[in-house]
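Allow me, if you will, to draw on your knowledge of protein folds for a short while. I am sending you one protein, given as its amino acid sequence and as whole-number tokens for its backbone shapes. Kindly check, if you would, that the fold set down in the tokens agrees with what the sequence suggests. The record follows directly beneath this note:
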Amino acid sequence: MPFRNGVLSYARCAVVSGAAPQSIDEAALAKLNANRIRPDACGNGVAMTSGWIAGRHVFDLEFSHESNSFSSVLLASLRTDTVGVPPALKRAYRAMAEDELRGGAQSDRQLSRADRMEAKERAEQRAMHEIGEGRWRKIAERPVLWDLENKFVLSAVDGEAAFNQLKLVMAETFDCHIERQAAGRRAVADAEALGLARELRDAQADAFVSPPAAIATDADGAPRRIGDRPEPTWAAGDPLDYFGNVFLLWLWWKCDCAEGLVEVGAPGSETTEVALVAERHLDLECAWGVTGAVSLRGDAPTRSPEAARALQSGKMPRRLGLTVAADGQVWRCTLQGDRLTVGGLVLPKPIEPPQSIRELIEERIESTLSFERTLGALYQTFLRVRLGAEWKSTKANMSGWIRERAAGRLVTGSPISVGR
């Protein structure tokens, strides 16, 4: 539903191989229908099943051009059904079955092994009967926007289980294989396109302040040495995901020191100006894993004394609230740096009221893709700076800005602080 109306949250996945359709034709719709959700497959020893739905609601199985085809964009939803009787109820059902076999709850008759096995079977049968009646079923819907021309998918599949379900269904339906484009994978793809692959291979994690003075410990509580460069635990899967945190810090610095204006576009070609405001939401965490994490909320959390102290202590932004303006549109969202996931994206209202539901959806799709292009252009602009000759001076300026913030400059706003 969210791509059709409401607030959006999504992760970006790249289609890396397979036989993707060139357009949403009858053959593509037939494949969606052949791989639609089959709720009956869930419950008989199968805890989870996934499949396509058309996307207007969780029971919508009417795939059509009108509902699912928007130029070179496929709009549908992944539905996942999960069943499971709560463990406490399973234990209660078994205990009640045992009471029946011994002749009542007050009886002290000892049950044989065969009796206990029968009680277990009765409890399982009762649970299966309730599942068959539709009880204990959890239904999740994850809208999917597939840009066929540009070979990427947007969907709320930030979690590993949700992503694996979408990956499986995409492969079974279209023989297409996807991968999540967190900050590291996005940096690899963009650096290749920008001719900066070698520079990316040589890049190391950036430290903008001195390592924290606190004593660090490992998982067993033993002291561990703190290096000069950060080793954030949240980027353990891909060290380059740390680029996303530096990206957020760079955007924050631009908001404070460049009036929030960023020129995007390739050097020597036509550029576009993007205006940014950092607001509402700021999560930070120690890049060395020593000084913990802090969450700030308010009109201007990035300008608060708490934010200044957090940066000086070695924390890096994990999540940042942004207002983004470009090409006559204004969006509001929260961006998680290392994963490059978008949360709470509010699309601009149409200037003219749409004449139909389809026209409304088309405008929302175009606005979503425009925002995604703007975000991608911002990230590419950052990568040109980060992997270019100017990074040494830029990094020095950012470190100086952090020191000035800690000294008490540029401090305004009254956020609500929630430490953890």
Residues 411-420 have pLDDT under 50 and may be disordered.
